[in-house]
Amino acid sequence: MTTPSIALSPSAAARVAAIAVRQAKPAILRLSVEGGGCSGFQYRFGLADAAEADDVVAQTDGVQLVVDPVSLDLVGGALVDYVESLGGAAFRVENPNAASGCGCGASFSV
Length: 110
Hints:
By secondary structure, this protein is an alpha+beta fold. The protein has helices at about 10-25, 70-75; strands at about 5-10, 30-35, 40-45, 55-60, 65, 80-85, 90-95, 100, 105-110. It has one domain: HesB-like domain (Hypothetical Protein Aq_1857, Chain: A, Sandwich), CATH 2.60.300.
């Protein structure tokens, strides 16, 4: 059985790197999924000090994206992007497993 992949776009990697420099932390973005939000599950982002032993790690331009195995079941195959628009700037998850999502893109259902 192969492990589902996860990817970090170059624009998201650049944004994580900039935030990490400002906060004097390693350029490691943790993506996790929690119950809640208006669609059932919600994405959580945060800088991590290191990857855990069982994390899946994706790397783009020297920046790591880490996802725990439980969350990976819900976001496997996804792309984490950073999007700037008139409505604001945010990390977005293009998740092929999501059957539906909310208007803000912060939560989803499977």
